[in-house]
Amino acid sequence: MINTIRAEVITIGDEILFGQITDTNTAWIGTELTNIGIRVVRKSSVGDQVDAILQVLHEAHQRADVIIITGGLGPTKDDITKKTLCTYFGVGVVRNEEALALVTSFFEKRGREMTDLNRAQADLPANAIYMQNDWGTAPGMWFEYEGRVYVSLPGVPFEMKHLMMNRILPKLTGHFKTPIIKHKMIRTIGIGESFLAERIEAWEDALPDHIKLAYLPSFGGVKLRLTATGEDNTLLDHELAEQVEKVMPLITKNVYGFDDDEIETVVGQLLKEKNLTLGIAESCTGGYVSAQITKVPGSSAYFWGSIVSYSNTVKVRQLGVKPETLELFGAVSEETIQQMAEGVRKTLGTNIGIATSGIAGPDGGTPDKPVGTIWIACSTEQRTVTRLLKLGKYRDQNIQLTSNYLLNMLREEVLNQ
Questions:
Q1: Domain MoaB/Mog spans what residues (predicted)?
Q2: pLDDT (tens digit, 9 = 90+) per residue, 321-330?
């Protein structure tokens, strides 16, 4: 029986708590630890205060086998991680000659003068195992203390990643006997989390103990993450595939992809496979849908162009929307969105035209058409389908949701071709 190895990731620095920089380190570290069978049980952020750092280290010691620390290893006075680790372990500092040689070489190659503060970066806690940083002057450090492994890394992402990949991860896999952890992601769209959970409840209840399910909601969809733990890689892959096969009949209509698939990538692959071309007319989304489509490399094979028809004049002149339609029904209406989708398809000469028109907010709503009232449409050579969305009051959210719903409508229509 292989025991679960638990890890905690601690980021140090006031700049993270103040929101001055975005912490991307913990997500990346969590992924890499999972890949070698180490389960992250807690992520913590703490400012540049000795007492606070000591407290979080003591707490991590109680619940984790591996404690990964990033940040606070620079040469300035606010970088206090090394001194705090000395206090925590009850040791002094020792100048590491290997680290000093690397720092010296770093400055010599750049023709810069090295200060005492720079030299002090080679001063490590006496119980530290030096981990060479090939991309900077802040060293990595490995500690073994009371049955736990502590790793201290620089906070600069590219330095941290290099140390993790080339020094820390190989050492962790040699130090611990870890289980295999495998993930399988099922990506759904157009169904809420609670409705999805109700639909697959019996299947979820029947999952074996070593396979866990997590619901990960996002704009317009929910990702279902299956996580299997065991010792046989091939067997785990087979078991995950078996569970996907069992649940798919319950949710096929709402599944657009797996693992790293994004809706715009899936749509692009379908258009390319069926040799179809796409044109887009956008009003309330202001080009956001087109930006999603063109994020995909090679999208020029199927995407011909777009018209951002923010004004009614452009809707009439470029898309062929009838003035009387706008006068009778308004820009935010089923009649208008239908003519927009058909118009962009004919104007650009594509197989498919899709369109958006609505009130994204935060103002512009009326009692009959409140903020969040949005129409979308997809026009093919066979038919034009429309849909009314009733979203919320937040502009950015409405734009992103509209894009996702429209791309899913496009996906469904292409599959029907």
A1: 8-175
A2: 999 999 999 9
